Amino acid sequence: MTGNHYFKYFSKKGKESSERTRDIFVVNPTAAPSRTKQTSSHIHVFDFTSDFLTETEHPLSEDCFDYKENGHVSWINIGGIIKEEVEKICSHYNIHYLIVEDILSINQRPKMDDMDTVLYCLLNMLFFNETTGAVETEQISILLGKEYVISFQEDSSRDVFDSIREKLRLSSSKLRQSGADYLCYALLDMIVDHYYIVMEKLGERIELLEEEIIRFSNTNSISDINSLRKEMIVLKRNVAPVRELVNGFIRSDSDLLEERNTKYFKDVYDHIVQANDLSENYRDMMINLQDLYLSNVNLKMNEVMKVMAIVTCLLAPATVIGGIFGMNFDRIPTLHNEYGFFSAVAFMILIPLWMLFTFRKRGWF
Fold first, then answer.
1. One fold for both 3-296 and 307-361?
2. What is the CATH architecture assignment of 3-296?
3. All residues at 6 or more sequence positions from 147 whose CB lies less than 8 Å from its CB, including other chains
4. Cα gap 132→21, rounded to integer Å
5. CA within 20 to 30 Å of 244's CA: 119, 165, 271, 325, which one?
6. Which fold has domain 307-361?
7. 40 contacts 80 by C-beta, under 8 angstroms
8. What is the pTM of this model?
9. Domain positions in the chain
10. Per-residue confidence (pLDDT) for residue 276, from 0 to 100
């Protein structure tokens, strides 16, 4: 039989676990992008000052060319990565081709680059799938230029920026009173804050799994532990590098960042450091859960062996007595005694009872 024939014997859960492992570990950022080609993109633009705001949607990247150097702060959010559209808008805004490659790539490590006239950062938004229990990622690229922020995200149907949009619609909000660098900070801060929502969901799963292992661990427990550990790997891989990314904004000497806004990026840095520490704690908890499961398995095995040992000891007198009086000798004391059988049975019962009392008195069970 070939190897493919054995797959039919695998459980559905085992197949899903293997596929998840492959998705997590098979990562090659140097390979050509293999993202699904999208037929259209959704471009949402906020063009604003402290007392002016226009919110528009555009089907083509050419429609966004007029927002360059128009005296307003512009947030151009592009949902759906189409190579031609990305290249057009990046060419118009004089974006280096290396950044264009990063925008079009997949499975990139979060990073920050200070290149030419823009600051570029790439990181992942995290979402928790309640159905599968998996941590899902969506890559987002953010470009900070002079009076503009351009964000590229893979899926326009979901993001974590709705609260930012609501604040931009309020003329009294700090976002409307500030520049593009503060808007960039707000986007990063919202992404990092959403990490805590995902970690809270994972924390709930860890708590439920711990209770399950303590009360009634079974063969599925180790599978649940391994699945959850994989999600911790996804979390750690996406959270840890963001610390260096935010630190890049703090240390940057770019004219695009106002010195008065440095304190806000330091606040994001504090949040990501705390998130990183929390992810480390979760990883330690998963190791402890695995140790707890193995301890429970060993404890159950010890209980089984204890019961079997006690039963064996209690049956030993009956076996000895029966063996002695079952020997094929012509002369055995009390062999023909009318009370011999009852005496043997009495000893077979009384001796185990005495042994049971002694074991109990010594606290052996």
1. no
2. 2-Layer Sandwich (3.30)
3. 69, 71, 72, 73, 74, 179, 180
4. 14
5. 165
6. Methane Monooxygenase Hydroxylase; Chain G, domain 1 (1.20.58)
7. yes
8. 0.79
9. 3-296, 307-361
10. 93
